[in-house]
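Issue: copy button drops trailing tokens. Both records pasted manually instead:
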Amino acid sequence: MIRPVVCTSPDTSAHDILEKLNSCQYSGIPVVEDNILIGMVSERDILELFIQGKNLKCTFARDFMIQNVITAEQDSLILPVIKTVIDNQILRLPITHQGKLVGIVTRHDLLKYILDTTPEFALIS
């Protein structure tokens, strides 16, 4: 799980989000208000704004973020988390505790967990 989470606010411009995504080398970023997850913004969202001819400096996260984000609770078991990621075609799954964002699990994190904890993978030579 990625901690601390690099976040943005609903008042951040698409241009500034793009710079943050580029500098962190992330493909998406949560939008939070008072540490409460209110949306997600991805590279794809920025690309869509660009091809629509939107001014990235005058378009803000609140205008294009994905709302009703699928999340998992911090104490969730790994198999339901993997199933959620697969069933919803999610690249990154925000992890919450009592409604507050505490981390993000990526597909890479899940694959690394499987590799590190599954004995048959460790024995392959």
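Record 2 (pasted manually too):
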Amino acid sequence: EGAIRLLEVQPEGKRPMPAADWARGYGVGPGTRLE
């Protein structure tokens, strides 16, 4: 299957943030599958 690169994430009720910052805060590492 394909892959995407997240550049920006906006958690519900919060401001947009860089995806790298979001991933560090939520413990998401390279190769993690989000469903």
